[in-house]
Design the sequence.
C-alpha cells in the first residue's frame, strides 16, 4: 500500500492513496499523530488492515513530504561509478562514503513546485531513492541493516549548484534552500530486499530521460550506508537516508542544463511510484 501525508480542505491527514483518491486513517489512530509515530510503532500493517475494504473519500489533496519533521535526513553523495567518473579527477572508488545533511524545510511534496531563489539560476535535479528507518539503533551491522528499514520513498534532491562551491569542505548551503527539493509522493512498506536490489531509477525532465540506472550499481549499498551512518550517530525511527543519485544531473551535461521555471521533473522507480514536480521562481 501507499501511505501519504496530505492536506485536505485545510487539514492535515495521513492515509492510503489509491487511484480514486485518499482514504484518511489518522483520525482512527489518535495515538499516532503522524506517519513518523506510525513507523516508530511498526504500525504500517495496522493501517493496511484498517484500510481493507474501504474506499477513498478525499479528493483534490495536496501532498506533503510523507514523514513530517524527521530528526535526521542524511544524504549520500557520489554513490554511483559514473557519478564518481564525472568529477574527472582520476580517483578510484572512495574508501568511505560522502555524507551531508538536509533540513526538512528544504523539501516540498509531490505535485508541488521546486522553488528557484533569486540568488541563483543554477537549480539542478537529482533523482534518488530514500529509505525510512523503522527500528533505530547504533552500530547496526550491515548483515542486519535491512531489518531496520520501515519503508521506501522517492526524492528529488534539488541542489543550487554554485552554492555547493561556496566553501572548501562542505556542500550544506547549496543543498538546503527552502523548497528546493521534494520527497514523496508516499512511502511504501519495505518487505523484500529486491525492492532495492532490483530497483531501476529513472529521472525525466520535460519527458526527456536524464538519469537511468539500477540501485545494484551503487558504490555503497544501502546496507553499508546504514551500518556506516549508525556508527557515528544513533539512528531513530523516522530518520531518512537519501541513498545517492546516478549520473545525468544537469550540471554535468555539456553544456550544463539547469532547471527553468515551468520545467517538469519526474523521478520514477517501479514498485514505489513517480515523484513529480514543476519549477517556479521564488515570489
Sequence:
Amino acid at each position: 500500500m501507499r501511505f501519504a501525508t496530505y492536506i485536505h480542505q485545510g487539514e492535515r491527514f495521513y492515509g492510503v492513496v489509491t487511484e480514486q483518491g485518499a482514504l484518511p486513517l489518522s483520525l482512527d489512530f489518535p495515538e499516532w499523530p503522524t506517519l513518523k509515530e506510525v513507523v516508530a510503532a511498526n504500525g504500517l500493517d495496522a493501517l493496511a488492515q484498517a484500510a481493507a475494504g474501504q474506499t477513498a473519500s478525499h479528493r483534490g489533496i495536496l501532498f506533503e513530504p510523507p514523514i513530517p519533521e524527521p530528526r535526521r535526513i542524511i544524504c549520500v553523495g557520489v554513490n554511483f561509478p559514473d557519478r564518481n567518473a564525472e568529477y574527472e579527477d582520476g580517483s578510484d572508488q572512495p574508501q568511505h562514503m560522502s555524507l551531508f545533511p538536509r533540513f526538512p524545510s528544504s523539501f516540498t511534496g509531490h505535485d508541488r513546485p521546486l522553488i528557484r531563489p533569486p540568488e541563483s539560476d543554477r537549480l539542478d535535479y537529482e533523482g534518488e531513492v530514500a529509505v525510512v528507518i523503522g527500528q533505530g539503533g547504533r552500530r547496526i551491522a550491515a548483515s542486519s541493516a535491512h531489518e531496520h528499514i520501515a519503508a521506501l520513498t522517492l526524492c528529488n534532491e534539488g541542489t543550487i549548484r554554485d552554492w555547493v562551491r561556496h566553501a572548501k569542505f562542505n556542500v550544506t548551503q547549496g543543498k538546503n534552500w527552502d523548497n528546493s527539493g521534494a520527497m514523496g509522493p508516499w512511502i511504501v512498506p519495505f518487505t523484500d530486499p529486491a525492492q532495492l536490489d532490483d530497483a531501476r531509477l529513472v529521472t525525466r525532465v520535460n519527458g526527456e530521460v536524464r538519469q537511468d540506472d539500477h540501485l545494484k550499481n551503487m558504490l555503497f549499498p544501502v546496507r553499508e550506508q546504514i551500518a556506516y551512518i549508525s556508527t557515528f550517530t544513533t539512528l531513530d525511527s523516522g530518520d531518512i537516508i537519501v541513498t545517492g543519485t546516478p549520473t545525468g544531473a544537469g550540471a554535468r551535461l555539456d553544456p550544463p542544463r539547469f532547471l527553468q521555471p515551468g520545467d517538469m521533473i519526474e523521478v520514477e522507480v517501479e514498485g514505489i511510484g513517480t515523484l513529480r514536480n514543476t519549477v517556479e521562481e521564488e515570489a
In short: Helices lie at 35-40, 44-51, 81-86, 194-197, 222-232. The radius of gyration is 18 Å.
